Amino acid sequence: MSSITLYTPGHNLVTDSLIMHGIVRYLLWADVDIDSVKIRRLGERFIIEIGNPNSIKEDKAKQVLASLQDQAIKLLSKGDYTYLIRFFEKIDAANLNRPAFKEWMRQFAQAITKFYSDSVRIYEDYDHMESEGRVRAGYPTLYLPLGPVYGKYNQSNYSAREVPYKVCYTCFLFANLGLVYGTGIIRIEKSNGAKSIMFTLIPTNEVEIVDVILTQRAFELVHERFMGIDVPTIAVPLIALSIGETLYAFKNAEVLVWVYEKSGNSLRITQPFHVSVDKLLRVLSTIKYYVPEWPRVVHECFLSNDDGPVILATLTETIINDNVDAEIYGLTRLITTFMNTNNRCERFRESLGKLIMGLSRST
To answer: Buried b / exposed e across 68-83, counting CB within 10 Å, b at 16+?
Structure first.
């Protein structure tokens, strides 16, 4: 059979990124010939070209979905969300609207039921979004961690009203798969609210599917929780790329970051931003050469107190703006002061000294 092309629907960059990651994981479960699959960006959408579609065994992938559905149904029947399996822990980490969790799980289970008689090839339709009827009654709501869309104004009878942004069950299913398998999440709890910071890697040009799979291997287990501290959004790309070694295989990519916040009873999602990985990876490769334990330094030192995330934010901004050489002395003073005033980082004193050396050699 000749090749096929799948298109993400065009909801928005965040939702389409999640759907792309969801499709990749589904194809992996279906034993697709990974050497025949390429992925490329098309504005805020993604194209997935499959050269050997005969290799796709959807029945096998649907067995994995059936297992997830069984777990969701058991979770709903018990009504106890204290102890969650890894898949639903990830969704719980993203969700700040606790009362919505049960309905979210119910819709996820229902989405799997509806997909049993369908196929991933539904995304061969370039105009899928137009045919799905986003505001049709009975479709699931796109919860804010799945896309930065508050609602859609629907005009009828000469009046306009805001209604929840809805997607078809297939898009809801694949966006959830992408959230769990393609996204890292930092959950921050504070006395007056909470914040879920989500990040993923997306291609800017054509990449092999294996590049996306390696990114998923790095991010699928990442959902960290911190108490009391705050993490500036600008620091997140550096934190994301500091996870493991596999990310160095993914070139032609951007880090995509979006933040979901709760303050009192108010919920909001900030405008997502994305930044190229090229400069960050170049500097991080040098840092990791001098500081092999860098991921631990980030997690156990910089993310263990209020001052550390500010250092990471300053470092990220300096690297992105290609100012490491000009700002090296300022960075040295900042890191030295931090090192001398934070007892929790005492065991990393030598590592922080090597960090300064690595930064000076990275320019």
So the answer is: bbebbeebeeeeeeee
